[in-house]
């Protein structure tokens, strides 16, 4: 593909990209169901949807990361077999990822040359620089070629990611939440420049986004996915934010009724006072969170992923040190030690249970004993394990919680996702006197029967008087289960409302950071 | 065949296969050096296990290996790769001599002196490796590198002590500490030349196995080693576990040092630094960090080490040839680690691994 580096580039019209009836299944889970989308040449197309709606899966199918279960990808009205990003590049498709993919220690020029699929074995830097200079002269944004990546600001790095695709002569750009790491000003600048390129007919753009503001300001068309299905499509000029929120979130003015028992004499169980926590990179993730969860109440935390909810759960679960602030459980300070967990009966259903709550190579029985292995009858005299009692307890739990496993000695990593979650559920919900349950995306990636089962278990716990903090990226789930909804955005708890009185549009606005 | 048996068979067959591969490569090396590989194999066998007399040599070599192997095997259950065995062993020996001379000077009876030496050696080795654990837990220093580098510090400390503060002026050729009185030395098992260190080694391996598999402490350590995020969710004190298990591992290596000075050398000098530490790392890896298996592997490696002299005498190979063999074994065992779960004959047929749901990353 020598043309990829020819300069000045020939600005032909971008090809037409069309996806017809695409279905993608992972095991029994259907991530995409008969989805069609068409990106007309020279248009700025937005792909909207909640978390887990299938947006990423769709673009990964287009780019050849995943093989679709059925359906076709058409480029210029011909069905194409795209098995890898390299094939996608051949058809002029290029993807810009949510996270930066440049080598920090190398310069802009080096990263651009590195990104080429036909990188030569021997690089003649003089001719490369001549070509790169010519390329920069015609590109929508300029970055100094000799600057190391580590010295670039986030906005410039994101520009470089886009430049990389232009340098590779990609004519249809797929952007996966390109502005999630940018400030609003940087986002406007980058999208504005792309918009100019699109208007000039040099590019088509398909952009995954959560942000209605950007969709309204910069895009022509919008396709909305909900739970793996096509939920709507239209021209942005014909639509309002409310229309799009409606398509994205569906008919949910009334939550699905579930049996809830009113709890008399409700006490505060969990209190957060000015809780702050940092991300892995040291930047603040949770800023001064204040929250009370009472017994017999489910408090739902809604938010777009990456707004601090993961860090919040990790602090409560004891996986992450807090920066400052207090956590009180039953009015006493709580440091997430094993002793405090046992005394206050605090249990956790973390997201990705295999990563956060199980030891994959240890057996189902051992994993089920993680909470109780140091108490009788599983431990004798406080230090000696009773392997027999550990097995016996696990065999009972496997029956009660219908975990499908060949035996309790099977390593838990060999079970399917739903059964791993059931194993954790059995461990965390089998205690008779739970006080506080912290659940994070407990149903992510599970099929409908497993979801129903987990919901009923969480509700049963609530009806027994357990205080539940439910963090979820699925608004349906929150509206169905919680008594109160709190919205987290940018690490702050920005909105709170009883679920019965919650207004879906307001929630959407608050989640989007308005 | 159940999963359990298949997995056990895999754990036995792969290390044996690695040893066989190492033997073949070593045979090629011997052939290049001008010796007959089959003859060399036979000599090693004869020197290690051929007669009761030679087998006693093997047992004498094996006991410090068993103890020092635990210094790698125990922390490995917590997911730490520690190779500071040599340093802990050397310091354990040094502390044991210091303790033995002091307590002996106070006129304690022999059992008291021996117990004091053992405790001193274990404390020194344990604290040495616990430092590595603390650096790892509190400052995120890579434990492999720090334990390796601390070996050099420990060896330098030994040389400093026997050349300076603890030097016996009568030891001229080989600077040493004052010798332990003969009556305080560890005796031999009845009817043999093998000292009581072998008993200590076997008991330590048995206890270590019991500790890891059958106690709540071992369960907590295995959990933290298998998935530290899950251990934190369960509220396990990961830092304390790290320090405790590093201390125990280091204590075993320190005990090996005590056995060497109290049963073999009788004094502390550079002979302590005899590669039993690195040998122990090798033993632990071949045994896949199983203490019971480590005691058997230590016998095998002890036999190989015991055959160094005979290779020199009968085949004209340098004394260091056994170190070459040890190195080849180590490499081939490390390589074999990558084969677990790859060989089709050991694959399970019952349960299919779960579909890759987690790969659908949230948008």
Summarize this, please?
The complex is a heterodimer of chains A (514) and B (363). Chain A has 17 helices and 22 strands.
Q: Descriptors for this entry?
A:
heterodimer, A: 514 residues, alpha/beta, Rossmann fold, 6-stranded mixed sheet, 17 helices, 32% helix, 25% strand, elongated, disordered N terminus, B: 363 residues, mainly alpha, 14 helices, globular
The assigned structural class of chain B equals mainly alpha
What is the number of beta strands of chain A? 22
Number of helices of chain A: 17
Give the count of structural domains of chain A. 3
Task: Give the helix level of chain B as a range of percent.
Answer: 55-70%
Which CATH-level-2 architecture of the largest domain in chain A? 3-Layer(aba) Sandwich
Measured as a percent range, the helix fraction of chain A is 25-40%
What is the global morphology of chain B? globular
Q: Number of DSSP strands of chain B?
A: 0
Distance separating the two termini of chain A: 45 Å
**What is the H level of CATH, i.e. the homologous superfamily of the largest domain in chain A?**
P-loop containing nucleotide triphosphate hydrolases
**CATH class term of the largest domain in chain A:** Alpha Beta
Averaged pLDDT of chain B: 89
Shape of chain A: elongated
Largest interface: A-B, 62 and 36 residues
What oligomerization state is this entry in? heterodimer
Structural class label of chain A: alpha/beta
Kindly estimate the percentage of residues of chain A that lie in beta strands according to DSSP: 25-35%
Low-pLDDT parts of chain B are: 350-363
How is the topology of this model organized?
The complex is a heterodimer of chains A (514) and B (363).
Chain A: E1 17-26, E2 29-39, E3 44-49, H1 55-63, E4 70-75, E5 78-79, H2 85-90, E6 93-96, H3 108-114, H4 125-138, H5 154-167, E7 172-176, H6 184-199, E8 204-209, H7 212-218, E9 221-226, E10 229-235, H8 241-249, E11 268-278, E12 284-294, E13 298-302, H9 309-317, E14 324-329, E15 332-333, H10 338-344, E16 346-349, H11 353-356, H12 364-368, E17 379-380, E18 384-385, H13 387-400, H14 417-429, E19 436-440, H15 448-463, E20 467-472, H16 475-481, E21 484-489, E22 492-498, H17 504-511
Parallel strand pairs in A: 3-8, 3-9, 6-7, 7-8, 13-20, 13-21, 16-19, 19-20
Antiparallel strand pairs in A: 1-2, 1-4, 4-5, 9-10, 11-12, 11-14, 14-15, 17-18, 21-22
Helix pairs in contact in A: 14-15
Chain B: H1 3-32, H2 37-49, H3 52-76, H4 85-105, H5 110-139, H6 143-163, H7 197-214, H8 216-226, H9 228-233, H10 238-265, H11 276-286, H12 291-306, H13 308-315, H14 321-336
Helix pairs in contact in B: 1-2, 1-14, 2-3, 2-12, 2-13, 3-4, 3-7, 3-10, 3-11, 3-12, 4-5, 4-6, 4-10, 4-11, 5-6, 5-10, 7-8, 7-12, 8-10, 11-12, 11-14
